[in-house]
Write a structure and sequence with these properties.
Shape: globular
CATH architecture: 3-Layer(aba) Sandwich
Number of helices: 7
Number of strands: 8
CATH superfamily: Vaccinia Virus protein VP39
Bound molecules: S-adenosylmethionine
Order of helices and strands: HEEHEHEHEHEHEHE
Number of domains: 1
Strand content: 15-25%
Mean pLDDT: 96
CATH class: Alpha Beta
Length: 206
């Protein structure tokens, strides 16, 4: 436990106030490997990761103000000093604002599937986003993705598998937060109770 407990204000970062390009490592006072999650929702995954790995730094990006605040409050209550929350569109932020080669892992769990065909262009996993995601990943950085939507997974496979700058690796890797077969995000826990099938894969940047 830190000597002074952090408040939610210590955890939240306003992306509009950061000098560009944004080197995400500069959001922490110490140097440590950095993991980024897009769509953190209530912060369940990041709270567990940050508690279990005080030697690592973590950033969560969440678009919905209600969940962003909820996650930051939770992190403050746990006294976590190795995690930050940002409220923004992770897609736009990564494509236009983040500096090259500054993260060691990117976590994307149950991104909104936008099931209607006319909304498919709103999906996060698209070639332009993947180019930017690879750009901000350090060499050997890990990307892990899970969805419960078969159609979206098919689309992800079409976008990601032809890339020669990524090498597929085991999804299960406790070093990156997989507990057995699970990652224990809010949606995973909810959908597991409903008996849904999960589709997942993980990669290393070559
Ligand atoms: C279906 S939920 C999954 C949440 C969490 N990853 C989980 O597995 O429980 C998707 C979350 O991503 C957020 N989100 C959707 N698009 C986003 C974007 N472009 N940038 C940041 N957050 C986004 C939503 O507000 C929502 O909280």
């Amino acid at each position: 436990m830190p000597l002074t407990m952090p408040t939610a204000a210590d955890i939240t970062v306003d992306p509009l106030k950061l000098p560009e390009p944004v080197d995400l490592r500069a959001l922490f006072e110490r140097e440590a490997p950095l993991e980024l999650e897009i769509g953190s929702h209530k912060g369940t995954f990041l709270v567990r990761r940050a508690k279990e790995h005080p030697e690592l730094n973590f950033i969560g990006i969440e678009w919905a103000n209600k969940y962003y605040q909820y996650a930051a409050d939770r992190m403050a209550r746990w006294g976590l000093t190795n995690v930050r929350m940002m409220r923004c569109d992770g897609r736009h932020f990564i494509i236009h604002q983040v500096a090259d080669a500054c993260i060691d892992a990117l976590h994307i769990y149950h991104p909104d599937p936008w099931p209607k065909k006319r909304h498919h262009k709103r999906r996060l996993i698209q070639p332009e986003f993947m180019d930017a995601a690879l750009r901000i990943m350090k060499p050997n950085a890990r990307l892990s993705i899970q969805t419960d939507h078969a159609g979206y997974f098919e689309h992800m496979q079409e976008v990601i598998l032809p890339r020669t700058d990524l090498q597929q690796v085991d999804f299960v890797d406790e070093a990156y937060g997989t507990v057995g077969d699970d990652i224990k995000t809010n949606f995973e826990i909810k959908y597991e109770r409903e008996g849904r099938t999960f589709y997942r894969f993980a990669f290393r940047k070559r």
